[in-house]
Amino acid sequence: MRKWIFLCAIAVAFTSCNKRQFTIEGNVADADGQTLYLESLATDQAVVLDSVQLDGKGAFKFKQEAPQYPEFYQLRLNDAVVHFAIDSTETLSFLAKAVDFADGYELTGSDECTKMRIVTDESGKLKSRINELNQAVSANSSQVDTLRAQAIQALAEYKSKMLNLVLENPSAAAAYYIVFQEINGSKVFDPYDAEDRKLIAAVATGFDMRYPESARTKQLKQMTLAAIAAERAARQNSTEALEAQVTSYIDIELYDLRGRKQTLSDLVNNNRVVLLSFTAYQTDYSPAYNMKLAELYKKYKGSGLAIYQVSLDADEQAWKVTADNLPWICVRDPQSVYSRNAASYNVQKLPTCFVIDRNDGIVKRIEKVDEIESAIQSRL
């Protein structure tokens, strides 16, 4: 009997030793009475794995089963979160203060977590730059054009830094983390953008080679392949369109202030000439620019002119106030400075407009207001 009990004890000990676990421990200062949560990010929503009510010392220690493949977790204190990754039986050390939990923390014990911290910090800097631009636009500041140029430059520099991190190890958790970075709810890396897709495809390939059965690998592959398929379909449609002598312009589908979908192609098909205008209402030039468009619209509407105006304003409410007073179709691209529609038309400055003939497609690109009328007249 004693021998049997002894053998059972050995079996239990052996099983415990072979159960892969990770540990995260540390201290959160000035958080007496607050609850610290350990949450898994393996699904679409954070799932609580463990929690502890902190005392005056702020010490904590969480242990969980280590994942089979690299996985993401977060520590949460109130609404502040800190992301980290686990891909082995690691022990991480965490130090923070409650007052700046998500920004002033120290997390050691993992190279991947160190890289993720770099990504988080760089994303924070980019977000600050974008928010500065949005605030300037909302305030109708004279610095909007300067800040927009700075934001575009900051985005380019950010993407370059992230690409370098990815190329160090495309199969690393930090590389995956980079792919899904967001700024104000919008993903920084767009799989439907050819340049961005190079980074995403590199990570998808890296994960597929190292973790072919991981759910995150499948997600990356599906994302990449879907974008490639869409691009090929677009090329095919473009070829068919040219063969059928359909007008050569890129269609746009956006919503007006009443929530109705407005399609550029519908307007082109029903009018002789369409002026496609990319603008932002919260700029110094906008009032005079729209007055000129109103003058032309009144003059040539009866001859077959229509206007499809795309606003890149960050402030939706301000856009609605202005758009409500304009007689033509006004839509807003919520991606603002990240607009794929503007990028598709290679819009480099605002305002920029295009004269689209129903039969011949785009016949002129215009960046100077005084050139609009002659371009319209030549087609009516």
User: Within the largest sheet, what's the order of strands?
Assistant: 15-14-13-16-17
Q: What is the H/E order? A: HEEEEEEEEHHHEEHHEEHEHEHEHEEH
Q: Rough shape?
A: elongated
Give the integer mean of the pLDDT values: 86
Counting helices, strands and paired strands, the structural category is alpha+beta
Number of domains: 3
Secondary structure topology:
Elements lengths: L1 H17 L2 E9 L5 E6 L6 E7 L5 E7 L5 E7 L2 E7 L4 E7 L8 E3 L2 H28 L5 H25 L4 H7 L2 E2 L2 E2 L6 H17 L4 H29 L9 E3 L5 E3 H6 L3 E7 L6 H15 L4 E7 L4 H8 L5 E4 L7 H5 L7 E6 L3 E6 L5 H6 L3
Parallel strand pairs: 1-7, 13-14, 14-15
Antiparallel strand pairs: 1-4, 2-3, 2-5, 5-6, 7-8, 9-10, 11-12, 13-16, 16-17
Helix pairs in contact: 2-3, 2-4, 3-4, 3-5, 5-6
Characterization of the model:
With 380 residues, the protein is an alpha+beta fold. It has three domains: 2-109, Sandwich (Immunoglobulin-like), CATH 2.60.40; 116-240, no CATH class; 253-377, Glutaredoxin. The protein is 43% helix and 24% strand. The chain has eleven helices and 17 strands. The protein has helices at 2-18, 111-138, 144-168, 173-179, 194-210, 215-243, 264-269, 286-300, 316-323, 340-344, 372-377; strands at residues 21-29, 35-40, 47-53, 59-65, 71-77, 80-86, 91-97, 106-108, 182-183, 186-187, 253-255, 261-263, 273-279, 305-311, 329-332, 352-357, 361-366. The strands form five sheets. A five-stranded mixed sheet has the order 15-14-13-16-17. Strands 4-1-7-8 form a four-stranded mixed sheet. A hairpin with an 8-residue loop joins strand 7 (91-97) and strand 8 (106-108). Helix 2 runs parallel beside helix 4, helix 3 runs parallel beside helix 5 (194-210) and helix 5 runs antiparallel to helix 6 (215-243). It is elongated.
